Amino acid sequence: FNMGLNNFNAAKSKLKILKYLSYKTKSFNNYFFALGAILQKKVEEGEYEYALVNAREMEQEAIRLNNHVGIIQGKLVMANYYLAQDNKREAIALYKEISQSTNASHDDKLMSLLFVYYIANEMGDYNMALNYLNASKIEVNKYILVNKMTSRSQNAFDLLLIEIYYCDLYANMRDAEGMRSHIDSMDVYYYSDNTSNNFYGEYHGEKA
After folding, report:
1. CA distances to 6, 30, 87, 128, 136 from 160, in Å
2. Mean pLDDT for the chain?
3. CA–centroid distance for 85 within its chain
4. By C-alpha distance, which of 39, 52, 138, 125 is closest to 88?
5. Which of 75, 69, 13, 67 is nearest to 40 (CA)?
6. pLDDT digits over 41-59, tens only?
7. Which residues contact 180 (CB under 8 A, 6 or more apart)?
8. How far, rounded to the nearest angstrom, does the alpha carbon of residue 87 sit from its chain's CA centroid?
9. For residues 64 and 80, what is the distance between their CA atoms, to the nearest angstrom?
10. What is the pTM of this model?
11. Tell me: the pLDDT tens digits for 61-119?
12. Cα–Cα dist 70/108, whole Å
């Protein structure tokens, strides 16, 4: 179901149809995913209050329906809203909540863990940043063990991204030895499958 997010009116019309079908069939996941994508687009476009009000309504409706996808998507939009508003405390609290939820998908958990790393690194709280970067790597490796049939390229992509973040963090900490160890690890993932095509600039920037 292509929502066409660049055309808000068209996306709203399609969402209305999807909502009708979802309530008719009592199957709500696709509807909440689509609504979350539209609201996230609104955050990116700077329509913050629209995104926040509707994200809160989505979360409450998802709670009423006992739909975990809607609850998580609502929290993600709100977390991204608070981050865009530079309210780091509220953003971190929501990202942490998502990362610890047994109902969150792997992608949502990983994204939330990396957002906490990013915010903590920006704040200069390097201990928190390191803890959440470690948790991100654990999440990816756990996912690989449980889902052996998933794309090797995507897993290598995620792990290379984390190694790049390690290098950035240790550079900020002025820890040359820590940075060097992760530069070595980057080589393993950089040359896995097609990963090198995605991170050529970042990889060679850290290697320089």
Report:
1. 31, 30, 29, 20, 12
2. 88
3. 17
4. 125
5. 75
6. 999 999 999 999 999 999 9
7. none
8. 17
9. 23
10. 0.84
11. 999 999 999 999 999 999 999 999 999 999 999 999 999 999 999 999 999 999 999 99
12. 12
Structure tokens at 106: 């792997």
Query: Mind spelling out the 3-state secondary structure of the chain?
Result: CCCCCCCHHHHHHHHHHHHHHHHHHCCCHHHHHHHHHHHHHHHHCCCHHHHHHHHHHHHHHHHHHCCHHHHHHHHHHHHHHHHHCCCHHHHHHHHHHHHHCCCCCHHHHHHHHHHHHHHHHHHCCHHHHHHHHHHHHHHHHHHHHHCCCCCHHHHHHHHHHHHHHHHHHHHHCCCHHHHHHHHHHHHHHHCCCCHHHHCHHHHHHHHC
Q: Whole-angstrom Cα distance, residue 204 to residue 108?
A: 28
In 3D space, the residue among 189, 198, 193 whose CA is nearest the CA of residue 167 turns out to be 189
End-to-end CA distance of the chain: 44
